[in-house]
Write a structure and sequence with these properties.
Layout: H1 3-19, H2 24-35, H3 39-53, H4 63-69, E1 86-87, E2 90-98, E3 102-109, E4 117-123, H5 130-145, E5 154-159, E6 165-170, E7 174-176, H6 177-183, H7 188-207, E8 210-211, E9 220-223, E10 228-230, E11 237-238, H8 259-262, H9 269-285, H10 298-305, H11 312-317, H12 321-325, H13 332-338, H14 342-350, H15 362-373, H16 385-395, H17 399-412, H18 414-430, H19 436-451, H20 454-457, H21 464-477, H22 483-499, H23 503-514, H24 522-541, H25 545-562, H26 567-575, H27 579-585, H28 587-603, H29 609-625, H30 629-645, H31 656-668, H32 672-689, H33 697-710, H34 714-730, H35 735-752, H36 755-771, H37 779-794, H38 798-815, H39 821-836, H40 840-856, H41 864-879, H42 883-897, H43 903-919, H44 923-940, H45 946-958
Antiparallel strand pairs: 1-2, 2-3, 3-4, 4-6, 5-6, 7-9, 8-11, 9-10
Helix pairs in contact: 1-3, 1-10, 7-9, 7-15, 9-14, 14-15, 17-18, 17-19, 17-22, 18-19, 19-21, 19-22, 21-22, 22-23, 22-24, 23-24, 24-25, 25-26, 25-27, 26-28, 27-28, 28-29, 29-30, 29-31, 30-31, 31-32, 31-33, 32-33, 33-34, 33-35, 34-35, 35-36, 35-37, 36-37, 37-38, 37-39, 38-39, 39-40, 40-41, 41-42, ...
């Protein structure tokens, strides 16, 4: 709309506000005088008055009636004829609410597939307009493409038998955000942390070119776990839709409507920023910034919305004692003081009448809210030098701040690190009254980083590793440095070396930095406990498990002594798990502890993000050890969603362990190509940042090799596995990892056909286990032994393989149970051994058992493993001379595997079928099958590999 049009709309609203209060009998004469000869103005006012007198929508109907229609109406369920009926696979069990266009029902899944409760939205027949129906369908389309943990998820949709559109979304059992906060008397910081979930959901919508346009507490529900869910995209606008919006589609909620919505001006993402400002104002003060409520008459609402918003501090000072107390125990006066400064400016920036002067994006708003949480300057209003200094002093108290400031700089990269070094020098002058220890620490770090600056190093780029090595060398050279300075720096450097994957050096530094330190104050003790956790993790990487466990228990003791009632410290104690814990308490007990830690984290209003991600990583790793790939995939996805929701950068090393879990889950689902893409991105991120989080470069390379193996790219897989072996030796990894690396290489050499090299590598893995005295029941060790059995079979040492598998199966029965995947894998290994040994009496019962175990675990018959069972059955049929059955079963297996990710597997099956076809005399078809099978076999395998050698021999025999 043009500027003239917006001005005409503003004048029409002003005239309407007065006209609506005049008796209808006198209104015409008054309007003739008020509008004069301006026909366009009179037409606009008449439209508004007509809307106010009819029964549809605002600006095409009665605003008050429309508003009332969207209030929840919890009437008698029996009155609604739809209750008890089914729509699609959903049975309607109750009414959740009525809207102007339809109703929202509680539904249960009714098709027997699984149990699920949800909410069904249905547009009511006979009450909808064309615009309303289009809006309803648009909402369904928008929800289908929005996938975010803070946005209610679309589950299903369709058209009912009566021709009414419907969709089903997740059922959110929660309260509006303002009521939820008040009921729990959340303080200002807790409310901001919760509100950031709202901003993140809006940010996700904006990135998908969707403006919500109806943000209000009733559309922002908070569940029992403290998770916000954004609902009702019924009037959302797609920015990608360049068609001019029709006036009849101007639905809105007056209390939260932005000036551009009221004036029919262009709608942009700034509209949502205005509404976020209104919601935030209410959360912080308990009052509407314009003093309106749902019951306020329309004309009075319009009049109020023309005013400037009530300043946050004034609204707080005028709040009731009850409202102030609900905000963390404040009084009206103390609440007003607490809201002065940045928070008031943030809300003011959202509520600027001109959309162009509000925050540029939801990201900018979120950044300022986090800055307030961190006592940093905000971008909305420039701060004076004095204000910036006050914020700096508030967030930098004592020695710990000096070290953490440089640590952040090192993590962030070279440019930021050098800037921080400059800041450290300036802040050292400000800290003259700090202790001599703090000044000495700052001076040391400043000198060290300054010496590594480009102008000193004569290089445009200085790596984080170079900075750390420079600092470590300087520390070693300065023998006179006081231990109170030396040890904090050693601990800081040790933690940073962990982030670069250099655990041997990290252990050396952390051991020295922790030696003899006895904290007396709570803050020092908790910081030291965090350093001990890092030390324990580094020891765990080196598989010095007893030492790792001892240090972890010291950290718990410090937290228990100095912060016995602090739930976050309890979480940190519960969350930290090492292989030492697994050795002492068992894997299942540790998994349960991690589940308890996650449950505790979800109850905290602001759990530490890094700790929560560690918990998800531990649960993913535990699921991997237990061969529970479905759980691993679910946990990894949930953890990555949590990281996304808390703006953890895509390249952050803390994501890598979860990405490994995601890769393993994708492999389980047969999505090897997608898994390869994920792990290559993880490797690229690790190369960019130099950090590996809770994993290592060696393990990431092994994971890449696994994704290539699953695609049948056996020779390609050798390269990352060889690189993994080199990294494992260079990184000083523990015996289990070194043995596993050697074992994995052995398996690939077996698949390629280099059986002698495979035997050497596999025996080396077994020797490492024996030399290091790894317990026979160790899960790592048993996995390596299972792989060794495969190598023994490939080298035709069948009796040794049989004895080993028999022993492993008995250990799995005792340790894991017969329903575990490890036990099922061993049954499968014994089945392959029986087929190779032409042992039908042993093999057929094993085949039946393997099928039954897969079915019991819920694996569908469409899974490719059942295709391999058909291959085995075909092999047994061939061995007993039933060529017809062998060919039929092999064809069935080939058909099921036709779209499998592993092209080499498919080629092996096709080559075997060629042998069966040739045996009955169809040489032409056998040649065609070989023509398809041989290229992938030759690409993946050496000539001596068994399957390829047999196919090559058959090809020569047939003259192919």
């Amino acid at each position: 709309m043009s500027d003239a049009g917006i001005e005409r709309r503003r004048r029409a609203l002003a005239v309407f506000r007065e006209a609506v209060e005049i008796a209808p009998a006198e209104r015409e004469a008054w309007l003739d005088h008020a509008c004069g000869n301006d026909d366009a103005l009179r037409e606009a006012v008449d439209a508004l008055l007509a809307a106010d007198a009819s029964g549809t929508e605002p600006f095409a109907g009665d605003a008050l009636a429309w508003g009332r229609a969207f209030q929840d109406q919890h009437g008698d369920v029996a009155r609604d004829a739809l209750v008890g009926r089914s729509i699609g696979p959903w049975r309607i069990t109750g009414i959740l609410g009525h809207g102007g266009m339809g109703a929202v029902y509680r539904v249960d899944r009714d098709d027997g597939a699984y149990t699920q409760h949800a909410a069904l939205k249905l547009i009511r027949a006979g009450t909808d307009s064309q615009a309303a129906r289009e809006r309803f369908l648009r909402e369904r389309q928008i929800l289908a493409r929005l996938r975010h943990p803070n946005i209610a998820t679309l589950l299903d949709g369709g058209i009912s038998g009566d021709g009414d559109p419907w969709f089903v979304m997740e059922l959110v059992d929660g309260q509006p955000i303002d009521r939820w906060c008040d009921a729990r008397q959340l303080g200002l910081r807790q409310r901001i942390v919760l509100f950031l979930q709202v901003v993140d959901a809006v940010r996700h919508a904006h990135r998908n070119l969707v403006v919500h346009r109806d943000l209000k507490p009733s559309n922002l529900l908070v569940d029992g776990d403290g998770r916000v869910k954004l609902l009702d995209f019924g009037i959302a606008k797609e920015l990608a839709d360049t068609r001019r919006e029709l006036t009849v589609d101007r639905a809105l909620t007056f209390e939260y409507a932005s000036p551009e919505q009221l004036l029919d001006a262009p709608i942009t993402t700034a509209t949502d920023l205005w509404q976020l400002g209104v919601v935030l104002h209410r959360l912080l003060t308990g009052a509407h910034p314009f003093g309106v409520t749902r019951e306020t008459p329309v004309a009075h609402q319009l009049h109020q919305l023309e005013r400037d918003p009530e300043p946050l501090t004034r609204a707080a000072s005028q709040s009731s004692r009850e409202q102030a107390a609900q905000r963390g125990g404040h009084t009206p006066a103390s609440l007003a003081r607490a809201l002065r400064g940045s928070l008031a400016q943030i809300v003011q920036a959202c509520l600027r009448r001109d959309p162009d002067t509000r925050y540029a994006s939801a990201d900018a708003l979120a950044n300022d809210l986090r800055a307030w949480l961190d006592d940093r300057p905000i971008s909305a209003v420039p701060l004076s030098r004095a204000d910036r200094m006050r914020l700096w002093l508030r967030r930098n108290r004592g020695l710990a701040a000096a070290g953490s400031m440089v640590a952040v700089a090192l993590f962030a990269g070279t440019g930021v690190a050098l800037w921080q070094a400059h800041e450290a020098r300036a802040q050292a002058r400000i800290a003259e009254r700090e202790s001599a220890t703090a000044r000495a620490t700052l001076a040391f770090l400043s000198d060290t980083l300054g010496a590594a600056a480009p102008e000193q190093a004569l290089s445009r780029e200085v790596s984080v590793r170079e900075l750390l090595d420079k600092a470590r060398a300087q520390l070693e050279q300065r023998a006179s440095i006081d231990p109170q300075v030396r040890q904090p720096v050693q601990r800081m450097l040790g933690r940073l070396y962990i982030s670069l994957g250099d655990n041997p050096l990290a252990v050396e530094l952390l051991k020295a930095g922790l030696s003899g330190v006895a904290p007396q104050q709570r803050e020092d003790a908790l910081a030291l406990a965090d350093d001990m956790v890092a030390y324990s993790d580094a020891l765990g990487f080196l598989e010095r498990n007893a030492e790792a466990l001892a240090v972890a228990e010291q950290a718990v003791a410090l937290r228990t002594r100095f912060a016995p009632e602090d739930p976050e410290q309890q979480l940190r104690s519960l969350a930290h798990l090492t292989l030492g814990h697994v050795e002492k308490y068992g894997l299942e007990a540790c998994r349960q502890q991690a589940e308890q830690a996650l449950a505790l984290a979800k109850r905290l209003p602001q759990p530490p993000v890094d700790i929560v991600l560690d918990i998800y990583s531990d649960l993913s790793t535990a699921a991997n050890f237990q061969n529970d790939r479905r759980r691993q995939l679910a946990v990894s996805r949930e953890g990555l969603a949590f990281a996304d929701a808390h703006q953890v950068p895509a390249d952050s090393p803390v994501r890598l362990t979860l990405l490994r879990g995601l890769v393993n889950g994708l492999l389980m689902e047969g999505k090897a190509g997608e898994a390869e893409s994920v792990v290559r991105q993880a490797l690229a991120s690790a190369g960019k940042t130099g950090g590996f989080g809770g994993t290592s470069l060696s393990v990431l390379l092994q994971t890449l090799g696994e994704t290539l193996l699953r695609q049948g790219r056996y020779r390609e897989a050798l390269e990352p596995l060889e690189a993994s072996a080199r990294e494992s030796e260079r990184g000083g990894e523990g015996p289990r990892n070194r043995a596993m690396t050697s074992s994995n290489r052995a398996v690939v050499h077996t698949l390629v056909g280099d059986y002698a090299a495979a035997m050497t590598l596999s025996q080396r893995a077994i020797d490492i286990l024996r030399e290091e005295k790894i317990d026979a029941d160790d899960l790592f060790g048993r996995t390596i032994e299972r792989s060794h059995a495969t190598v023994l079979m490939a080298n035709k040492r069948l009796p040794e393989a049989e004895a080993l598998l028999r022993d492993l199966r008995e250990r799995a029965r005792r340790l894991d149970g017969e329903d575990a995947e490890e036990y099922a894998l061993l049954v499968g290994q014994q089945l392959i051994l029986a087929l190779r040994g032409n042992d039908q009496a042993r093999g057929l019962p094993l085949l039946a058992e393997a099928r039954a175990r897969m079915a019991k675990r819920g694996v569908p018959e469409t899974h490719e493993q059942f295709a391999h069972f058909l291959r085995f059955e075909a092999g047994f049929a061939w061995q007993r001379g039933d060529a017809v059955a062998a060919e039929r079963l092999q064809r069935d297996a080939l058909q099921r595997l036709a779209s499998a990710a592993n092209a080499t597997d498919v080629a092996v099956v096709r080559a075997q079928l060629a042998e069966y076809v040739a045996a009955r005399g169809d040489k032409a078809q056998a040649r065609r099958l070989l023509a398809q099978a041989l290229p992938p076999l030759r690409a993946a395998m050496l000539p001596q590999e068994t399957s390829r050698a047999a196919a090559e021999a058959l090809a020569r025999q047939l003259g192919a």
